[in-house]
Design a protein that fits this description.
Elements lengths: L6 E4 L2 E9 L2 E8 L5 E5 L4 E15 L2 E5 L4 E4 L5 E16 L7
Antiparallel strand pairs: 1-2, 2-3, 3-8, 4-8, 5-6, 5-7, 5-8
Pfam families: Cupin_2
Organism: Sulfitobacter geojensis
Protein name: Cupin domain-containing protein
Length: about 100
């Protein structure tokens, strides 16, 4: 169980840091409703995403794809990416180095 608080990341999306170290951070995103979004953005961190539950349409740069439970992928540093929740669920993201803006 994480000692970090659950915070509202955006409308219909909760975020909780699960573990952190200066070199790596694990974060859960709970998408509560279909249509909730992870706005397109980029950051210097390499990110891996694992779909624990739900269905999502992700975009990375100019590519879009649909993912569901058990799927995972890596987002390169500075790549513009975002998602739309198709069915409520949970994503588990790892960032290297850690996202200090989430602390």
């Amino acid at each position: 169980m994480s000692d970090f608080p659950v915070v509202q990341a955006s409308e219909g999306v909760l975020r909780q840091v699960l573990a952190d170290h200066p070199d790596l951070m694990v974060v859960a995103f709970q998408f509560q409703t279909a249509g909730a979004t992870g706005a397109r953005h980029n950051h210097p961190h390499v990110q891996s995403t694992f779909v624990e539950s739900g269905r999502f349409r992700f975009s990375i740069e100019d590519e879009s794809f649909e993912i569901g439970p058990g799927d995972s992928f890596v987002i390169p540093s500075e790549a513009v990416h975002g998602c739309v929740c198709l069915e409520p669920g949970r994503l588990v993201d790892c960032f290297t180095p850690r996202r200090d803006d989430f602390l």
